[in-house]
Amino acid sequence: MQPSRRHAILAAALFGLAGQARSHGDKAHAKKAGPVVKEQMDWGIAGDAKAAKRTIEVRMLDSMRFDPDRIDVRLGETVRFVHRNAGKVMHEFVIGTREENAKHAELMKKFPDMEHDEPYMAHVPPGKTGEIVWTFNRAGRFEFACLIAGHYEAGMVGTINVNPS
To answer: Rounded to an integer, what distance in angstroms lies between the CA atom of residue 76 and that of residue 37?
Structure first.
């Protein structure tokens, strides 16, 4: 896999270059204007909203859980995820591999003010909703997680199973 923008941002944080970053705290991350960058990841690629035939609502809870915490999709399926933060603290929904999410969660503990905005991430303030449209073009078992410091470690993680058609 080629280095992604995510890796570049994480590397910048490691070298202390992310000093101008905003906090994950209670601030929402502003979505960038313009088209979504479609970069192939191990867990899929940003999807086209017009191609989404199914919408899956995922509730984010202050009990550090997602509801549902297991999602099954078909290989090649484009899904619209609607994230509802039913809690009183900021939560996020990040799709990735277990390894990528674990590394990112560790970095978030060290650099909680790191700002990032990728098409496989939704940062959702309390009482609000967020959305991701994702195409699952790789079969396998992937994760979705809240990587805000302490949330991942508390068990705020779920599974996405991408099954061949």
So the answer is: 19
Output the DSSP codes for 55-117.
EEEEEEETTTEEES-EEEEETT-EEEEEEEE-SSS-EEEEEE-HHHHHHHHHHHHH-TT----
Q: pLDDT (tens digit, 9 = 90+) per residue, 13-39?
A: 433 333 333 344 444 444 445 566 789
SS3 54: strand
Domain that holds residue 71: 44-163
Q: Cis peptide before 68, with omega less than 30 degrees from 0? A: yes
- Looking at residue 102, which CATH number applies to its domain? 2.60.40.420
Q: Longest Cα pair distance anywhere in the chain, in angstroms? A: 45
Q: Computed from CA positions of residues 65, 95, 58, 130, in that sequence, does the dihedral angle turn out positive or negative?
A: positive
Model pTM? 0.78
Q: Beta 121-124 vs 91-96: how paired, if at all? A: antiparallel
What is the rounded distance in angstroms from the CA atom of residue 32 to the CA atom of residue 117?
8
Total domains present in the chain: 1
Instruction: Specify whether the CB–CB gap between 82 and 56 falls below 8 A.
Output: yes
